[in-house]
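Sync notes, pocket subgroup
Present: LS, DG
LS reminded everyone that the earlier model was apo-only. Rerun requested with adenosine-5'-diphosphate included. Inputs:
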Amino acid sequence: MKRSHLIYALLLLGVLGLVALAIFRGTHRPELYTYSRILMGTVVEITLKEDRPGPADAAFTEMARLEALFTTYRDDSELSRINAMAPEQVRVSPEVAELTGLALKICRLTEGAFDPTVGPLLKLWDFVGTGNVPTKEELEGVRRLVGCRYVELERDAMTVRLARKGVRLDLGGIAKGYIVGKAMEVLKKRGIGWAIMNAGGDVTFYSSDPSERFRVGIRHPDRAEGLVGTLVVGSGSVATSGDYERYFIKDGVRYHHILDPRTGMPAGGLRSVTVFSRKAYLSDALATALFVMGREKGLELVEAMEGVEAVMVDEDGSIHTTSGLEGAFRPVED
Ligand code: ADP
Ligand code: MG
């Protein structure tokens, strides 16, 4: 064999070896099947260990059904009807009664840091449009419309009444988690024993094996591809609220979509809050609430809650976690 041929043959062998290794490795990794749909204004992905589009479809259908109840982007949703009818009492479906009850509970738990009536404030800021910085007078003007005491829920009769005309019930800070949680229930009922759902970065995972651990990356506030660290946790849900999710810049100042209900201004102090808990709605709502509460008060609240953990990225880039995450959170070295 000529020398050049020999080199060629060796190279080819090398490549074949790599290909064989890749195939060999591939067969040893369980196959994952991902199904995706655009829902709740984001891409929702369901990943299973089995090729079963049926259960995934059923889960997406449930999500779409619930989204249609809770959206405030459409006039014909139940939420929009409650808002339009204020101060009349409105009969609602069991899910709207349930989620309203959960939102009110979290509003009280967080002393109003999470407030499902921030709607009139959000409207002034126009985050979904081009963005607008309201004047002090404008913010003051809607103050009398913000507060969860204005939401009257009768769980048994399944009615909701907003005490004043102009009060708006907006479940945007909790509905995504709630909907994903319900969709996970659908998968379980269909016999799925292992699933991951990713709804625009909020991740919910389930394994019938209680010893199974999932690794979840926490995004860097300034670099979409970068991580601040990873969490290794059992079945549950990880949600993040960050100042980089939805914002606009006016005169060099960045205004983001998580408002401090007490001031009507974007909450300051933190860049992002990530919460792990067993319940997707709880992780979702607490991430928003803790962002508003700030580092000290926020960490104090979740330290006292069983099974709830948090990772916070401070304005100066420093990372703070609850004590329960010892060993479960690994920061990425810069
Ligand atoms: P995303 O929906 O982008 O994942 P979050 O879960 O952090 O983000 O929720 C932010 C949404 O919650 C806002 O777009 C708004 O609808 C609503 N919101 C903003 N501030 C508050 C607040 N203090 N309490 C409850 N909901 C809020
Ligand atoms: Mg949230």
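DG: Residues 173, 239, 241, 284-285, 287-288 surround magnesium ion (ligand 2) (CB under 6 Å).
LS: The radius of gyration is 23 Å.
Action: DG to write up.
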